[in-house]
Write a structure and sequence with these properties.
Elements: H1 3-103
Length: 108
């Protein structure tokens, strides 16, 4: 082998070693960067899911409280209606009893 071939081989090995070192440095430096990006994306997804969960809970609580208030209102309305029907029935009975006594002259 002559000096030109040996010099060319040494330069090629040096270039290959330099490229391999640079590629390794880029891989090792990009590895933590990619890992950090993936971690940040995971945290973002987790935070978004938590926010959706909190919003869903808030809506469910609001709907539940609204249903409770509606049920209580309906219950109170039904109670008032029942009392009114009862009073109306009692007044109707009293009126009927008075009319029957009046017709058969039992008032005297």
């Amino acid at each position: 082998m002559n000096g030109n071939k040996i010099c060319g081989i040494v330069i090629a090995f040096a270039a290959l070693a330099a490229f391999n070192g640079a590629a390794g440095a880029q891989q090792s430096s990009s590895g933590p960067g990619i890992k950090q990006d993936v971690k940040a994306v995971g945290h973002g997804i987790g935070n978004g899911a938590r926010d959706v969960g909190h919003a869903t809970k808030h809506v469910a609580v609001s709907v539940g409280h609204g249903a409770k208030e509606a049920g209580v209102g309906i219950g109170h309305g039904a109670k008032k209606a029942g009392i009114a029907v009862g009073h109306g029935a009692r007044e109707g009975w009293d009126a009927t009893k008075h009319a029957v006594k009046h017709v058969f002259h039992k008032d005297d």
